Structures are given as C-alpha cells and as structure tokens.
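> example.struct
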C-alpha cells in the first residue's frame, strides 16, 4: 500500500512505516534466566543479609527489536556510511540493556557497570573481538565498531547475560515503539532488503522497492 510522502525532497526519497506483532511468549527464557541468577546469588561471597533478590524482567519490544535496510543495488544518493556517535549498552540488574542494539559503523559503544558486582564484557564475534576485563560499579569501558556485522556480547562472570550489537553500513534502521509501530523516513529511492531482527535472531528478510515520494507500509508478525 502506497501513499504520497511529504518533504522537500519527496521526489527523491521515500518512507517505510509498519507494525511489529509478537505472538510468542518469552516465559521459558525468563525462567531460565531466573534459575541462573538464583544459582549465582547462592554462590555469592556476600552475606545473605546483603544479597538483593533479583527477578529478571521481560525486555520491552523496543529493547529487543530492530528493523533495518541494506541496499540491493547502488542508490542515487550516498547513504552516509560512517558515524562518530557514542551510545550506551547498560549493565544493570544482571542484564544488558537494550538486548539488541543497532548502530552505524564507526560508533563507539559505552559499557557502564551499574550493578554492585563486577562485570567482564567480551565478544568472540568475527566482526569485533574484545575482552574488557573485570570492572566494578560506577566504572565503564568503551569499544568502537568499524566493521559491519553481528557482534554477540556476553559477560564472563554471569553466564546468562547476553546482548547483540548490529553494526550497520547506513543510518536506515529503527526500533518500534511499545505498541509495535515503526517508521524509517528519508530513504533514497531504490531496491533494498528489509530485515526484521528480534531477540538473538534475524527473523525475516524481504526485498522491497522504495519509490520516490511514497510511503511503503510493511508489517511483520512473529
């Protein structure tokens, strides 16, 4: 379904809008995280009086969902494929937030520790390998990601902690709102593959065409 797009350069660009619908239940994932968290706290060197009970929370839809584009053929306008931004992948309540983080290549990610225990963030992914070592609450480490690809993040101390960083070649990506609505504006006209990533996995990919001055409506159900 297509409708007129607005904007000064509407003759050269288009927009994608859509809705993400999740029908799956993550109860088993939560129970697994709770068992590992309880096991860790039972072995903690802290006294029972100072241990704080932790109940893993559900990630919200924006925290674990990304929609992004990859061009199939050269587009008329450059895609601006390098970024100097800094973004945060937080560590709190023995979890990474967000669970899935999309960035443009060249972005520096900050890994603050906001738990009252040590963390050790690392990745063995071919896209970007690193090991930040152990550091306490209130400190942070940084990593710059210069190569596009998928980077799977873990904590060497807490086996249940994991996250995904999607390092992308262009700025045409987004996360949905709490209701599942998303929008990617100002896309140069051309042919693309649109990808829907949820949690730890790529769920679906489709070939699409962005026509000048139009809004393309693309929905995903998982």
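> example.seq
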């Amino acid at each position: 379904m297509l409708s007129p797009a607005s904007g000064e350069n509407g003759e050269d660009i288009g927009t994608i809008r859509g809705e993400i619908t999740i029908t799956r239940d993550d109860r088993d994932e939560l129970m697994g995280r709770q068992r590992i968290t309880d096991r860790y706290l039972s072995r903690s060197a802290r006294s029972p009086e100072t241990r704080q009970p932790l109940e893993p929370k559900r990630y919200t839809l924006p925290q674990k969902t990304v929609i992004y584009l990859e061009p199939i053929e050269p587009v008329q306008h450059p895609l601006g494929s390098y970024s100097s931004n800094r973004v945060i992948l937080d560590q709190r309540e023995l979890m990474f937030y967000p669970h899935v983080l999309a960035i443009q290549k060249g972005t520096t990610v900050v890994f603050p520790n906001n738990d009252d225990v040590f963390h050790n963030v690392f990745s063995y992914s071919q896209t970007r390998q690193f090991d930040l070592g152990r550091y306490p609450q209130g400190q942070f480490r940084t990593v710059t990601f210069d190569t596009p690809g998928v980077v799977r993040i873990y904590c060497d101390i807490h086996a249940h902690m994991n996250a995904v960083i999607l390092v992308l070649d262009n700025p045409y990506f987004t996360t949905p709102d709490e209701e599942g609505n998303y929008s990617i504006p100002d896309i140069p006209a051309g042919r693309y593959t649109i990808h829907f990533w949820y949690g730890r996995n790529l769920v679906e990919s489709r070939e699409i065409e962005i026509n000048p001055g139009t809004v393309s409506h693309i929905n995903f159900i998982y």
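> remarks
Residues 102 and 166 are 5 Å apart (CA to CA).
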